[in-house]
């Protein structure tokens, strides 16, 4: 990224030349980090080792300082580590969760191994008003409430809170929630496939309690999914608040200009 | 949420009773915060003031301590503030960006007011290898490189870095990038609509530089969008790395079980 050809609109006039240079280097480091992040999350370094700093610099037309700063950004995200004598190695896998099709976590990640669920809470509660409303239930109706910490290969991926109508949810009390997606159980128990889900994705900072459950530092970036799942017949049956570890899950899909 | 009816699987046996109670209260506070967050982001408190703590407690069957802890979580996210003598007020609007249809930011948010763009950089650079590859260009081909800080009503929403092939992008050099979506410019300049985009969403912590640009604390949660946009004829024309402020943008859509 040869910087001399970049025309700069906010310009050095407003600041000192040194501050301007720092800003340009920070911009270039971030741009380089974005490119390397994409490569490493997609297995672009098959042996798990990044090229030497000098080689990265040559490939991307970046100075040694910029390369170092870019690698520092990736290290701060928990994606790479530096091993003396070895170089910079990829330490994290960030699993892809599809946005195009509604799937449970175990279903989504089956190629990577089994998902296990630590069921922290399961039982009936009186539905909070916003939950009752979304499920089309009367105020304070009984609902099934489930909290699960979900892991792949022992590593926490997400912390899920679900609310289900009792007529739909009660059979789940005897089911193997530790090893089975709720989606799969719902389909086998109702005898009909799921239809669709309305979702909202947000980036939030982990509160101290969620951070402890997910095994991340307080304030770590969390991909939060609010999902209302419907059966094929249109009935809403599952309100969920899911916190994915930001360093372990990404969501990918295709968006059409004219659906 | 009457806790006494919640059957607990990890149980008090493993910890002290006091620690167990703290965990249950933290769980309930988070659950309550999730419900209130959803309401407030959807305008559920039309006058912008939340009910008194006691009223929230009564509505949700939660103790005063749990309500306070839930409001503290929302305050930490920058969504509410406490005003002495007034109560808890909503201070943030979190705009909805659709996942179902490919749209530019100004197009998406037109009901909320005009989006203005601070063009920080615009110029040609030699395409980094991963950019060239995604755009179907030869290595080191010249591409147009644009960096914009995008605002709504003066408030920073996102920090966008784009790379476009030069034959497509060059006309943008003379265009009103300050006030127009690149998507709209692309459609008017190529004379064809956009087709689709391949997207990846991640939650990341803001590095110090991005945080300064976006006006958020270092480490704040950022919703990062990696997007490759194609024209209707299938040609990939726009590689973007977009950092949305996590406290200002959420992404919503509908996912079918069987597309």
Automatic annotation (TrEMBL), chains A, B:
Keyword DNA-binding: yes
UniProt domain HTH gntR-type: residue ranges: 26-93
Superkingdom of origin organism: Bacteria
InterPro entries attached to this UniProt entry: Bact_HTH_transcr_reg, Chorismate_lyase_/UTRA_dom_sf, Tscrpt_reg_HTH_GntR, UTRA, WH-like_DNA-bd_sf, WH_DNA-bd_sf
GO biological process, alphabetically ordered: negative regulation of DNA-templated transcription
MF term (GO), any: DNA binding
Signal peptide (UniProt feature, chain positions): none
CDD domains: WHTH_GntR
Keyword tags: DNA-binding, Transcription, Transcription regulation
Record carries keyword Transcription: yes
Protein name: GntR-family transcriptional regulator
Organism listed in the record: Streptomyces sulfonofaciens
Lineage: Bacteria, Bacillati, Actinomycetota, Actinomycetes, Kitasatosporales
């Amino acid at each position: 990224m040869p910087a001399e050809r970049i025309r700069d609109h906010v310009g050095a006039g407003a600041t000192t030349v040194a501050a301007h240079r720092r800003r340009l280097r920070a911009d270039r480091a971030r741009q380089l980090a974005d490119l390397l992040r994409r490569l490493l999350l997609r297995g672009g370094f098959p042996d798990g080792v990044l090229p030497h700093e000098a080689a990265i610099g040559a490939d991307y037309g970046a100075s040694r300082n910029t390369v170092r700063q870019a690698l520092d950004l990736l290290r701060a995200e928990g994606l790479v580590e530096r091993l003396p004598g070895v170089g910079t190695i990829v330490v994290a896998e960030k699993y892809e969760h599809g946005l195009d099709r509604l799937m449970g976590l175990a279903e989504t990640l089956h190629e990577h191994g089994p998902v296990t669920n630590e069921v922290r809470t399961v039982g009936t509660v009186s539905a909070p008003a916003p939950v009752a409303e979304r499920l089309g239930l009367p105020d304070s109706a009984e609902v099934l409430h489930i909290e699960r910490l979900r892991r792949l290969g022992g590593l926490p991926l997400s912390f899920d809170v679900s609310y289900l109508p009792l007529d739909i949810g009660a059979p789940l009390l005897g089911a193997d929630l530790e090893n089975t997606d709720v989606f799969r159980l719902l389909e086998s128990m109702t005898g009909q496939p799921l239809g669709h889900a309305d979702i909202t994705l947000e980036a939030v900072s982990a509160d101290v309690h969620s951070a402890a459950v997910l095994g991340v530092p307080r304030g770590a970036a969390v991909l939060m999914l609010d999902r209302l799942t419907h059966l094929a017949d249109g009935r809403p049956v599952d309100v969920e608040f899911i916190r994915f570890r930001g360093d372990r899950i990404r969501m990918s899909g295709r968006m059409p200009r004219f659906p």
